[in-house]
Design a protein that fits this description.
Elements: E1 2-8, H1 25-40, E2 43-44, E3 46-50, H2 62-72, E4 76-83, E5 95-99, H3 105-122, E6 126-131, H4 135-138, E7 144-151, H5 158-161, H6 164-182, E8 185-186, H7 191-199, H8 204-219, H9 235-249
Parallel strand pairs: 1-3, 1-4, 4-7, 5-6
Antiparallel strand pairs: 2-8, 5-7
InterPro entries: MurNAc-LAA_cat (IPR002508), N-acetylmuramoyl_amidase_3 (IPR050695)
Pfam family, one: Amidase_3
Protein name: N-acetylmuramoyl-L-alanine amidase
């Protein structure tokens, strides 16, 4: 069994991690993380575990994330982020993937397998694979990468970041590239059937109540996304966004 840890970088309340007009980086990161996990779930022989707060309310400390992944025995770690430059709008652009400094053949191999999918998904300038002394790739005891999927303060990149389809495709394509890198095969149960069996645990009344909460969250500007596809959300997504609504409502 291959075990991959992952996270959406930061949290909703992390200072400075936002667009010049206040959209939170975590909201972009979260959409990729969810799509990554959902796509990976159709493969056999792999387990994934998320190490940030999936509601975004708490910015889980970096040492708690890396300690969690190490203690769980993860074989790989992927951290999803979006870049920033001056916190003012500019025309810088591109995606990049980071590994730790020095001789890191296993992390480099993972980055080389994943980075082309990132470039293709965003359709932005390829800024390459880089080495940096970042906690998340330094303190993990397994091959680890940190993905920067475009600049939040770029007038070019922000159009991609605000497109949910781009972010969902990025998560899916990264999962597919990871699966290919690890030699994973899709499970015998078709994706749609498997998802329905695993994730339908709300009754119709519960689903409708969750949808109404999410729609109210949009109207009250508690969500940065418009959630236009709420009627297509599965039960896990409905519950997650409803919890996020309640958490933000009670702040």
């Amino acid at each position: 069994m291959i075990k991959v840890g992952y996270d959406a970088g930061h949290g909703l309340s992390t200072p400075g991690k936002c667009t010049p007009d206040g959209e939170k980086e975590w909201s972009f990161n979260d959409k990729i993380a969810r799509a990554f996990a959902k796509e990976l779930s159709i493969y056999s022989g792999v387990a994934s575990k998320r190490f940030d707060d999936p509601t975004g309310k708490r910015d889980v400390p970096l040492d708690e994330r890396t300690d969690g992944a190490n203690n769980w025995g993860a074989n790989y770690y992927i951290s999803f982020h979006h870049n920033g430059n001056t916190s003012k709008w500019g025309n810088w652009t591109g995606v990049e993937t980071f590994i730790y400094v020095g001789d890191q053949p296993k992390s480099l191999a993972l980055a080389k397998a994943i980075h082309p999918a990132v470039v293709k998904a965003y359709g932005l300038r390829d800024r390459g694979i880089k080495q940096e002394n970042l906690h998340i790739v330094r303190e993990t005891k397994m091959p680890a990468i940190l993905i920067e999927g475009g600049f939040m303060d770029s007038t070019i990149d922000i159009k991609k970041l605000r497109d949910d389809q781009v972010l969902e495709n990025a998560g899916r394509m990264i999962a597919q590239a990871f699966a290919k890198f690890c030699g994973l095969k899709k499970a015998s149960v078709p994706k749609k059937e498997e998802t329905e069996v695993a994730q339908q645990f709300l009754n119709e009344t519960g689903r409708n109540e969750c949808k109404e909460m999410i729609k109210r969250g949009v109207e009250e500007c508690l969500f940065t996304s418009k959630h236009e596809n709420v009627d297509k959300y599965n039960d896990t997504e409905l519950i997650s966004y409803s919890m996020a609504y309640l958490n933000r409502k009670t702040k």
